[in-house]
Design goal:
alpha+beta; 60s Ribosomal Protein L30, Chain: A; 2-methylcitrate dehydratase PrpD; 2 domains; 16 helices; about 55% helix; about 10% strand
Length: about 425
């Protein structure tokens, strides 16, 4: 691999493996609201939040951390407006006092928050307007969780970054391939990724362990582990699910995300870490395997987009299976077949927003990744023509992107309608 391509893969990891507190969509709303308050220069007297349908879907049911268990868009907006650090990006409400938590709850009764379904071509679109007296401040984020495109105070434009058509947004990832990911993992200098991946290990395992200690959501992780404490495959699934239990349940611990999602960051990393630790793998082996699992997840998600009717845990489960394949000595052939087999099993899982059941979907996605690897090792596989599977891993990945981005558009709209009606 030449130096320029090596640096591009490294940059992808650095761009995507970011720390975040809580589910990233409500946190993005909190971030926009904190910037709006800072721009306004006063505590808002009322707030208007305009969001795309996928933001409505992902914020409706999830607990916002540091709010005392509150859920939904108004709670996220007021958390950012009253207690957020406008310069902390996705850790905007990571440091909130008990007094501020009480203020957020009280503010829901006297600071009106108007929530509107935005008419926008963008899947990811958040606009927050904060009002105080005759003044107003407007902040808009599009396509990525921290991508500011407009900041305005009254008639003064402080930031104006024209919004490109949806098909033109996002960083170029056209150079990525499964073969390239494997080559990068073979050649990566551990010091180039150690700090980045050690943070992912520390954060994501800490919240997994908290999920198994505490009581969060439907306790999917605990349920999986009960009676199977000595089974490694159950432990891999249970730890990943428990991390999501805690995260969706408002646990106040950060995670390292992947492709804009904490659940995807958890799914791509935790099973690989559990496998490596329980099999005595070296630190270098684990770092290389996490390069594989994270980059395979990102590669799959690139064609799908940040938000979709297609559950992101599916891609991350494929990534986890690929990372385990690496730890078992697999390289391009084994990893490519693992990805294709796993995709063939779980491509029908829909995303109906962030909430407790995400943990169960994560468990299913990890199981599919491990099954895909086990199939290949036993001499079994899915072939081109089996459903959406085509000959060649890249062709299958392209089909997944087409299914999620184009084929499931109407599915996504119907899911949003169903959730709004509830």
């Amino acid at each position: 691999m030449n130096e320029a391509l090596y640096r591009r893969y490294l940059a992808v990891l650095e761009e995507e493996l970011l720390p975040a507190m809580g589910c990233t969509e409500p946190i993005a709303i909190a971030y926009a609201a904190a910037l709006a308050r800072e721009t306004l220069g006063a505590v808002p007297e009322r707030v208007r939040v305009e969001v795309s349908g996928n933001i409505l879907k992902n914020v409706k049911s999830v607990v916002v951390p540091h709010t005392g268990g509150l859920r939904g868009i108004p709670a996220a907006a007021l958390a950012g407006a009253l207690a957020g650090d406008a310069h902390a990006a996705l850790e905007v409400i990571a440091r909130v006092s008990e007094e501020q938590i009480a203020q957020i709850g009280a503010a829901l009764t006297h600071i009106p928050v108007e929530v509107c379904h935005a008419d926008t071509p963008h899947i990811f679109d958040i606009a927050v307007t904060a009002y105080a007296g005759a003044d107003e401040a407007y902040v808009r984020i599009v396509e990525q969780h921290t991508r500011l495109v407009c900041v305005r105070r009254n008639d003064e434009i402080l930031l104006d970054d024209p919004v490109a058509p949806p098909e033109e947004t996002g960083a170029d990832r056209s150079f990525m391939s499964v073969e390239g990911v494997v080559e990068f993992a073979q050649q990566v200098v551990p010091d180039d990724v150690r700090a980045l991946l050690q943070r992912q290990i520390d954060y994501n395992m800490a919240i997994a362990e908290e999920g198994l200690r505490g009581s969060y959501g439907a306790n999917i992780g605990k349920t999986l582990l009960a009676g199977h404490e000595n089974c490694m495959e159950y432990r891999m699934r249970a730890y990943a699910a428990a991390a999501s239990d805690a995260r969706m349940g408002g646990c106040e611990l950060p995670v390292v995300i992947n492709s804009g999602s904490g659940n995807q960051g958890i799914t791509a990393s935790v099973p690989v870490i559990v496998y490596a630790r329980e099999n005595g793998k070296s630190e270098e082996d684990l770092l290389r395997a996490l390069c594989v699992s994270n980059l395979i997840t990102i590669h799959l998600k690139t064609g799908i987009g940040r938000l979709s009717a297609y559950c992101g845990a599916v891609s991350a489960g494929c990534g986890a299976g690929a990372g385990v394949a690496w730890l078992q000595g697999g390289r391009l052939r084994e990893i490519a077949h693992t990805v294709v087999n796993a995709v063939a099993v779980t491509s029908g899982i829909v995303c109906d927003g962030a909430k407790g059941s995400c943990a169960a979907k994560i468990a299913a996605a990890v199981d599919a990744g491990l099954l895909g690897l086990a199939m290949f090792k036993s001499g079994n596989q899915f072939y081109g023509g089996d459903g959406i599977v085509k000959k060649g891993v890249e062709n299958t990945i392209a089909n997944v992107g087409r299914l999620a981005r184009r084929g499931m558009l109407e599915t996504d709209k119907e899911i949003i309608r169903l959730m709004i009606e509830n």
